[in-house]
Automatic annotation (TrEMBL):
One of its GO terms (cellular component) is plasma membrane. The keyword Nucleus does not apply. It comes from Ruegeria faecimaris. Residues 229-434, 527-717 form the ABC transmembrane type-1 domain. It comes from the Bacteria. CDD domains: TM_PBP2. This is Iron(III) transport system permease protein.
Amino acid sequence: MTDTTPKTNHPVLIFWIVAGWVGFCLLPWFMVEDGIWSFVWLVDGYPFDEDYAPAVFLIGQGEKLWLTPLLVPLTLPLLILGKPKSDPQYARILILAGALGFGWLIAQGFSIGIRGFNFDWMKALFGEPKIRQFGMGYGAMICATAFLFLLTQGIAARGAINGDVFVVSAIGGVITIVTIFVFFPIAKMLFAAFVTEDGAYSVSVFASKFFDDRLWGLGCFAGAKCGAAWNSLFLAVLVGFITTALGLCFALVVTRSGFRFKRGMRALTVLPIITPPFVIGLALILLFGLSGSVTKFVAEIFGVQPTRWLYGMPGVLIAQTLAFTPIAFLVLIGVVEGVSPSMEEAAQTLRANRWQTFKTVSLPLMRPGLANAFLLGFIESMADFGNPLVLGGNFDVLSTEIFFAIVGAQYDQGRAAVLAMVLLFFTLSAFYAQRAWLGKKSYTTVSGKGDAGVHPLMPRGLAIPVLGIAIAWAVFTAVVYGMIIYGSIVELWGVDNSLTFKHYVTAFSVRFEEEGIRWTGAAWDSFWTTITIAAIAAPLTAAVGLVTAYLLTRQSFAGKNAFEFGTMLSFAIPGTVIGVSYILAFNVPPIEITGTGVILVVSFIFRNMPVGVRAGIASMSQLDKSLDESSLTLGANSWQTFRRVILPLLRPAILAALVYSFVRAMTAISAVIFLVSAEYDMATSYIIGRVENNDYGLAIAYSTTLIFVMLAAVGMLQILVGRVQIGRRTQLGTEKTT
C-alpha cells in the first residue's frame, strides 16, 4: 500500500533556518580586522568585543540596533516546519521571510556607510549613529545566504520550474552573485562616463569623449594612425580566427592522427597559457627585435637593414596568438573527442570517404566548439593589455588606452569608462553573432545508447597540412620558451650572456636552521600567496561556471538570455576596469574587502567564470537530454542527475575550467595591479616590479619557476579529473580507459 501522507520533513529548509540563526547568534557579524581567513577572534574578546560580536550580542549591548528587524524574517520560517509544501502558507511565508531578510540587509547596508548615514534625509530623521558601519563578516554573509535560499525555496514551492528546488536555488544564487560581483561594480565604474568635474551627470561629457578622433579615427587609410576602436576590432577578429584554426589543428592531431609525439605536443600547446604575457613579449623581442638574434641573422645573410617591424600589430598578433591558442585547444579538444564515432562510421558505411565524412558529419558537429573558441579568442584579444603594452608601439588598442586613462597622469575615469563601453559593445556583438551562426540546430552526439565506435583518422589531404601547421607552431613555441629559459640563466639579458643561477638564488633561496626551514628568497611571500589564492579560486570558478552552463543548456526560464549576458559581462571588460571598479565598489560597506585576499579570489572567480560557462555549454550541447529525463524518470532529482549523470560526462569541460582558472589566477596582471596589498602581494605584481627596475633576469627566473609549477599543477589536475569513460575503442581496437 502506497503512503500518501504529505511529507513534512524538509532537511534543506531546516539547514537554511539553522544557518540563518547561527550567522545571527554565533558568528562575528562584521569583517574582523585580521581578515576573513583569520580566526584570532575566537580567543580575543569573543563574543562581547564589538569588533567580533555576533548580531544578537551587538543588539543586546545597545549597538547596531538597525539589525533588530532581522529577527522577524528569521522567526517566520519556524511557523511552517510542520506544514507540507502543498500548503499555500508554506510558499508565502518562505517568500516573505526571504524577501524581508535579504531586502533589509541590502537596505541597511547601503543606507549606513563608513561615515554614518549615506543620505541627508536619514541624518535629519535619525541623527548620526554612535558608531560607523563595517563590512559584512561571517555572520552577515551566512545570514544573507540563508535568506536568499529561503526565498528560492518559497518560489519553487509555488511551482516555478516544476517546483525544482535545486534549479530555482541555482538560478537565484548565480543571479545574486553575478549581480553583486559583476553588474554592481561595473555599473559603478561606467556611471563615471557621465560625471562632470563638479560631480554632476551630463550626456555632453559622455558625447565629447565618445566621439574622440583617437577612438574612431580612420587615419590609417591616409597613412596616419587608426583609432583604437578599429585597431582593437581588426586585431581581435584576426586573433579569433587564427587561434580557433590552430586550436582545431592541435585537437585533430591529438585525437584523429597517428602522430607519435602527440602527448608532447599536447603539453606544449598548454605552455603559453601558464606564462605571464609580457614574458612572451620579451622573448619575442629577444628573437625579432631590432637587436634580436633572428633579426641579426637575417640581416647578415641577406644584407638588409634591421627594422622595428615587431613593434605594432605584427608583434601583438604573434604574442596574442601564442597566448590564446591554448584556450581554443582546451575548448575544442573535448568537443572533437565528443563527436560520436557511430555517426562517422554510418557515413562511411554509406560509402562516404574520409574527407566527405569529415566535411559533412564531423566538422558540422564541432560548430559549438568552434564558435565558443572564436568568441573566447576574440574577447581575450579585446581585453588583453599586457602584450600590447610591451609590443604595441604606436598601435593603440582599447585596453591600453583604458590602462593609461586610469593609471596615467590624466587619471580620467570618464574616458576609461567610455572606452570600456565601446569594448563591451564589440564583445557583445561577437557574442550575438556567435549565437546567430549556431542557430537553433541540435549538436547532440552523446546519448544514453551504447557507442563503442572508433574515431576515423583524418583524410590524408587534410592530415598533411594540419600536421605541418601544428608541428611548425609547436617548434616556434618551443623556441620562444627556450629563449625564456635562456634569459633566466644569463647575467644580463642581451648585454652580458655569461651563464649564472644567481637570479634563482635571489628569488628562491632556502636556509635550513635548527628551528626548521627558513624561506629567505625575495619571491617566497608572493609565491605562497599566489598559490593559495589560485588554489581557492580555481574550484570555485569551475563550480560556478559549470552550474551556470547546466542552467543555460538544460533549463528553460524567463530572462534566460539576460542571464547568459550577465555571465559573460565580466569577461568582456578589461582587467584594469575590473580592478578599479572593484576598488570603487568594495572599499566601503556593505562589502568592505579591498586590501584583503577575498577581493583577489572574487575577482578571479568572476573574471574567469565565462571560460567554464563556454566550455560547459560546448560539451553539454553534445549530451542528449534523454539522459536527464531517464534519470528523473527513475526517481532522481535534478541535483542527483547533475552530480551523477551530467558531471561525469563533462570531465573535459571541468579540466578546461580548472586549468584555465588556476593558471589565470597565477598569471593575471591587469586587475591584480590594483587589488594587491602589502599583505597579499601576487607573483605577477612582484614580477612587474622587477621589470620596472630593469631586473629582467630575476623577473624571467620567477616566471620560469611559475611555468614549471603550473605544469605540475596541470598534470595533477588531469590525473584527478580523469577522462570521460564512454566505452569507446581506440584505433588499435582496445577499449578506452581513464
